DNA sequence: ACAATTTGACCAGA
DNA sequence: TCTGGTCAAATTGT
C-alpha cells in the first residue's frame, strides 16, 4: 500500500538490467559473463537460501547447541514472572544446587537421563517496570548464575554435555541480565526494539508503533510503518543454520532483502502469500540478531486479513495451528495455552514465545512423527514448527522440538519433568495453568516482562 | 508452467 | 543525502 505499484515511473532500467555478481559474498546468481562450473555452482547453491531444501536433505543436522537446554523466562502474571532453568544431564544425575527461599531445585531422574530444574519465581513491582523490578530480577538472575556455577562444580568436569549445559545456562543468564540492565539503564525499554508481541511498551509509542488506525494517517511517518507492529525474537529451528526462524503459521513470500546499516546480517522482507489473492497486507521482517545468529528478530506489520486454512483442517483438534504443528513436528509436544493477561489484550493474542526444546519422545508408534528421520533433519516440515500467531485469538501454541539424542528416550521423561515443573510451580498468584503455562516459555525475552 | 527467491533499482521519509 | 522498504525482472526450483 505504501507506494502505488503503477507509480513506479520508469522501469526500463530494470528491464534491461543484467545480473552481475553481487558484491556481497552470498551472491550466487550466475553471472552473465561467467557460468560457474557445476561444482562451483553446487557450492554456491549449498550456501544459498534457494538451495536450502536440498541442503537440508543432504546435510544431517548436527546436534544443536540448544538441544539440551533452554533458559526460559516467562511472564507469569501481571505481577510476577517465572524463570525456569531446565538442564538435562544424561548419565550423571546432577545434584541439587543450594536451595534458597526463592529458588526451587528439583531433580527428576528417569532412565538414563536426569533433569535438574531450577525454578525461580519472583515478584516484580507492577508499576516500576523500568526500575525496581529490574534490579530485583538482575539480582535473582545473578543468583541463578551462581547456582549454575555450583551445579557445574557438582557435576564434575568429565562430562562434556554437563559442561556444555552449564555453560549455556550461564551465558544465557548473563545475556538476560545484560538485556535487563541495558533496557532499564536507558530510561526504560526501547519501545521500538522491544515491543514484543502483545506486551505493550511502557514508553510512548514511537512513530513506528502501532497506534495507527489505518495505513494512511499522519504525514510525517512512513506510510509503511503506520501499521501495527510487533516484534518477537525467535530462535532458528536449525540452530542458526536455517534462513528463517520458526514458522508462524502463515505463508510468507520474500520480496526483498536489505543490508541494514550497523547490522551484521541482512534483513529479509516478507509479505503474505495471499497479498494479491486476498489482499492481505501483512508483512514481516526477519533479521538475525547480531548477538546470536541463531536468534531472529521478527517484526510483523499489519494484520492478516487472509483466510488461511491449514492443510490439517480436517483434524479433530479445535486449534488448526496446533494440528499443523503436530503434524509437522516429527516428534514433539504441542501445547496450547491460554493467553497471558497482557497477551489477551492483543487481538492476535500470540506471544513472543520461542521454542523450548524439552525432550525427544521419538516413540516407535503412536505419534504421527516418523522415527526414521531425525527431528532436526525434517526438511519439509522443519519450517512448520514453532509458535503460531496465526489464528488463535486468545491462545497460542508453543511446540517443542525434541532432542536428537538416542539416549534420550522418553515421553515418560518429558512428562516427568513436566510434572516436576508443575509440582514445582504451584503459584500463589493467578495460577499457572499447569503444563501449559510452564511450557509456554519466552526465550530470554526478559525485557518484555518489564513492558 | 508455475511458484518462489534473488537482487538491483526505485521511492519516500528522516 | 542517506537509509530503509518495496518493486519487479531475472533466476532458480518444483
From TrEMBL:
Cell compartments where the protein resides: Nucleus
Subcellular location, principal: nucleus
PROSITE patterns: WRKY
A cellular-component GO term for this protein: nucleus
Pfam families named in the record: WRKY (PF03106)
BP GO annotations: leaf senescence; response to hydrogen peroxide; response to ozone; response to salicylic acid
UniProt cross-references to InterPro entries, sorted A to Z: WRKY_dom, WRKY_dom_sf, WRKY_plant
Keywords carried by this UniProt record: DNA-binding, Nucleus, Transcription, Transcription regulation
The family this protein is said to belong to: Belongs to the WRKY group III family.
Organism: Panicum virgatum
Chain intervals with Polar residues compositional bias: 19-32, 377-391
Keyword presence, DNA-binding: yes
Ranges where the record places region Disordered: 1-72, 226-252, 368-391
Name of the protein this chain belongs to: WRKY domain-containing protein
Domain WRKY: 241-304
Source organism phylogeny: Eukaryota, Viridiplantae, Streptophyta, Embryophyta, Tracheophyta
GO molecular function, one term: DNA-binding transcription factor activity
Domain of life according to the entry: Eukaryota
